[in-house]
């Protein structure tokens, strides 16, 4: 008798439990949507008042100030659209530059300009390229200035020159190349939709939409670090997280990766400089 | 000398919406230097005031819980386009900075 009672109770309880489960999954979903909405609202509020503006202002001043052994400004620097054209230049990078006979991303190009126009030695800047509160980086500020001038411009890195095509192919290979103590590749985290690390959504960088979100909102101001971070930093940090040796500043590896990302994102408007957690 | 602020003031109906982006390290005094292990001395904004013409419309006390390079936003009723907004902050080291703009 006792056994029967228990069985009846269990039978009775089962549908209840199922309904409860179904209800819970509905509310979970609503809660998740509401959370995502709130996070988006929070991001919007943050974006309105992006401290990247402070770096941009400093970068603009650096760009226009006569400095270095040759006492020249960077206003004659050719970023690919002709000497001194900054507006929209970043949206068409990385690209092939005939004077150095290779593909360069924005930061390597800035270094070249600082060497040729201002007479600086690149090592002065690559020794400590990433800034901190006590060590402001000129390169980061200049980058902030140049990328802001491409806000809203359609990203369209040229893929015509053989070296640009080569960089794209190399970048793609690197993206999928698994190695290191974790047997990781960029693709391990960034080649599938709907992945995330903790609460950060990881864009699928092999698709146009993913690259638009990922590549198109960097460089960015990192709130947790209180610093403006560039693409060179972003790539370096991805390498660090994969436990790879970090590439040198302006390395061809990074340029190749960026060429691959830029080509995947091509056609979408550049939305940076962004603001990240 | 402290770096300049970025102030944006626009009319939204009959209220002015003002946003101020301040360039400041906002050190809490609790962070240790990664290399030396020494505490980084506190350095933060203590007061931030806003005046509209001659009238003080905001008088705030700020502490170490505020982030580096903070953004402040507030609304002022009864302002009109062309009014002058002046923002001043002062930090615990006595450093201060004043910037102004006109409401657009």
Taking strands numbered 1, 2, ... along the chain, how are they ordered across the largest sheet of chain B? 4-3-6-7
Indicate the proportion of strand residues of chain A.
Answer: 5-15%
Percent range for helical residues of chain A? 40-55%
What top-tier CATH class of chain B fits best?
Answer: Mainly Beta
Span between termini of chain A: 62 Å
Name of the top-level CATH class of chain A: Mainly Alpha
Q: What is the CA-based Rg of chain A, rounded?
A: 24 Å
Output the structural class of chain A.
mainly alpha
**What would the principal axes of the Cα set say about the shape of chain A?**
globular
Q: Please mark out the parts of chain A with pLDDT under 50 across 5 or more consecutive residues, or reply none.
A: 7-19
> What is the count of distinct domains of chain B?
1
Specify the CATH homologous superfamily of chain B: Immunoglobulins
Structural account:
The complex is a heterodimer of chains A (277) and B (104). Chain A has 277 residues and is mostly helical. Chain A has a single domain, classed as Cytochrome Bc1 Complex, Chain D, domain 2 (Orthogonal Bundle), CATH 1.10.760.10. Helices cover 50% and strands 8% of the residues of chain A. Chain A is built from ten helices and seven strands. In chain A, strands 6-5-7 form a three-stranded mixed β-sheet. Chain A has a two-stranded antiparallel ribbon with strand order 1-2. In chain A, strands 3-4 form a two-stranded antiparallel ribbon. Chain A is globular, with a radius of gyration of 24 Å. By secondary structure, chain B is mostly beta strands. Chain B has one domain: Immunoglobulins (Immunoglobulin-like, Sandwich), CATH 2.60.40.10. In chain B, 0% of the residues lie in helices and 49% in strands. Chain B has no helices and seven strands. In chain B, a hairpin with a 2-residue loop joins strand 3 and strand 4. Chain B is elongated and about 50 Å long. The model of chain B has no long low-confidence stretch (mean pLDDT 90). Classes of the chains: A mainly alpha (277), B mainly beta (104). The interface between A and B is medium-sized, with 11 and 13 residues.
